[in-house]
Structures are given as structure tokens and as C-alpha cells.
Write a structure and sequence with these properties.
By secondary structure, this protein is α/β, with parallel strands linked by helices. The protein has 11 helices and 9 strands. The protein folds into 2 domains: 64 residues, Helicase, Ruva Protein, domain 3 (Orthogonal Bundle); 207 residues, Vaccinia Virus protein VP39 (Rossmann fold), CATH 3.40.50.150. The chain is 39% helix and 19% strand. Helix 1 crosses helix 2, helix 1 runs parallel beside helix 4 and helix 10 crosses helix 11. Keywords: Methyltransferase, S-adenosyl-L-methionine, Transferase.
């Protein structure tokens, strides 16, 4: 005798339990999102049709997705999408999944450069999905920007995101290890979210990060500061006089990064905390002459 078909409500309840056992946060919400991915039926439909029987095809697809999520694969990798700022972006295993904490950089940028009509030139180093550059361009409607990433697949993905968000005419992307292929002295604003996790700490991160996101985008060397030691001195030659840099930092790194900035003759304008009150971004300014 075959396995009895489940109703929509039963399938979601069973998936919620499987996810909860694996300590997935908000397991019922995630179970509903996964059902939407598997069946094409959104949450309002699910609530209205909880007693309907799940088709064999949808049940098979749903079981596979729930198993992958329970094993720690990020929801964004399963859906192929992630929201950032006001944008809906494509994501892949070649890049970090954009996170809400990184939106702190855009908030800081808007505060320090309030003229939304200024024709700024932006540079996003380690662009990944392009989330920082594209969020900035969505706010500064006369600006143009370049995103650089050493991973070709990431640069291609960011370019697709620029097109699908309607920003493709004001963004360009290149394959470059940091600033290696970038001309100096051309940028009003530089944005970056460099790798900052100490190497020995990576294995202790959540499994969805440690096992499913690119190590090259996480690993900041023995103390987490390796990339800042290269990146911050490079900012001086890339920024116009008085130009701004907004850089993401890890927990407890704000003093060390500020020290590196001052040693590179950059002014520390702001150290901005995220919603969890953790210092998350440093705002730096190049000398005016």
C-alpha cells in the first residue's frame, strides 16, 4: 500500500517539525515559503486550501526542498533570490547572500552624502551580487558605478542583477582582485564588504554559512584584518580629494580598522552600528588636498 497523501496543512506541519528539530529559525514561516517554491502556491492560497490534498509532484518537490533546508542550505540558495534594500536580487553559491546588516552601509552613505541628485561615481570592491552598488545607484539617480570582483561568476551575476533592477545603464562590472584593474583617483564613493572572519572561526559559523557560502568571501586571515591591511591604503589612490569610503567590518574590529585608516591618512567620520547595536561600518574620508 502506498503512502497516504497529505493535505496542505499536514505537509506544512510535518515540514515545520523537521525544520524545528534542526534549529531552523521561524520554521513554520520557512515551511510555508518552501511550499510556495515547490508548488507555486503562496501563503494566502495555503491558508485558504489547507485541507486540499498535495499532488504527488508537489509533495516530491517539497520533500526535497525541506531536506535541503534542514541540512543547512540557505533559503536564498533554494529560491535563487534575496531582498536587499529595496531590490530583489539573484543569488548563487558563488557569492555571499546579502544580509540586512550590510544595509547599514547604505544608511550611512545616505546620511553622509544627502544630495540624491549628485552625479557621483561609485566603486564597489568585492561586489558579489552587486547589492551595495545597486542599492546606492537606486538612491542616487544621476550616479554611475563600477563593481569589481575577482570571481568571474560573481561579476556576471552582478551584471544580471543590474539589468533586472533597471540599473544596467548606470553600472559596469569587471573581474579584478580588489583594485588591480581599477584606475586611480576617479571615485567619489567607494563601498566594500571585505572578508573579515578570522580563519579559525569559520568552522564555528552557522552551517548555512560555513558549508554553503564561499570561503574566499568570508576568510579574513588569522585575525580577520588581512584584507583591510591591503584595501584601506588602496583607498587613498582610488578616491577623489574629499571622497568617501564606507566599509563593512566584523564584530570588535572597529578600533583596528580605524587605526589602519588613520595610518593611511584617511579621516574616520563615523563608525555606524547595525540594528543589533554592533559596529558594522566605518565611514572614511580622503584628504581634500
Amino acid at each position: 500500500m502506498g503512502k497516504a497523501a497529505l493535505t496542505v496543512g499536514e505537509a506544512i506541519a510535518a515540514a515545520t517539525t523537521r525544520l524545528a528539530v534542526k534549529a531552523i529559525e521561524q520554521p513554520r514561516r520557512e515551511a510555508r515559503l518552501l511550499f510556495d517554491l515547490a508548488s507555486g502556491h503562496d501563503v494566502p492560497w495555503q491558508l485558504a486550501h489547507g485541507g486540499d490534498t498535495v499532488s504527488d509532484n508537489a509533495a516530491f518537490a517539497y520533500d526535497a526542498l525541506v531536506a535541503r533546508r534542514a541540512a543547512g542550505e540557505p533559503m536564498a540558495h533554494l529560491s535563487g533570490r534575496q531582498g536587499f534594500w529595496t531590490l530583489d536580487l539573484e543569488v548563487s553559491a558563488d557569492t555571499l547572500v546579502p544580509r540586512g546588516d550590510t544595509e547599514t552601509l547604505i544608511e550611512a552613505l545616505l546620511d553622509h552624502r544627502p544630495d540624491r541628485e549628485a552625479a557621483y561615481t561609485f566603486l564597489d570592491l568585492g561586489t558579489g551580487t552587486g547589492c551595495l552598488l545597486l542599492a546606492a545607484l537606486s538612491e542616487y539617480t544621476a550616479a554611475f558605478g563600477i563593481g569589481a570582483d575577482r570571481v568571474p561568476e560573481a561579476a556576471l551575476l552582478a551584471a544580471r542583477n543590474a539589468r533586472t533592477t533597471g540599473l544596467g545603464q548606470r553600472a559596469a562590472f569587471m573581474v579584478s582582485h580588489w583594485d588591480a584593474a581599477v584606475e586611480e583617483g576617479r571615485f567619489d564613493v567607494i563601498l566594500s564588504n571585505p572578508p573579515y572572519i578570522p580563519s579559525d572561526d569559520i568552522s564555528g559559523l552557522m552551517v548555512e554559512v560555513a558549508a554553503h557560502e564561499p570561503v574566499s568571501a568570508l576568510d579574513g586571515g588569522a585575525d580577520g584584518l588581512r584584507e583591510y591591511r591591503y584595501l584601506i591604503p588602496a583607498l587613498r589612490r582610488l578616491l577623489v580629494p574629499g571622497g568617501l569610503a564606507v566599509i563593512e567590518i566584523g564584530i570588535g574590529q572597529h578600533e583596528d580598522v580605524a587605526r589602519l585608516a588613520r595610518a593611511a591618512d584617511l579621516k574616520v567620520l563615523d563608525i555606524r552600528a547595525d540594528l543589533g547595536r554592533i559596529p558594522r561600518a566605518v565611514v572614511l574620508e580622503a584628504p581634500t588636498a
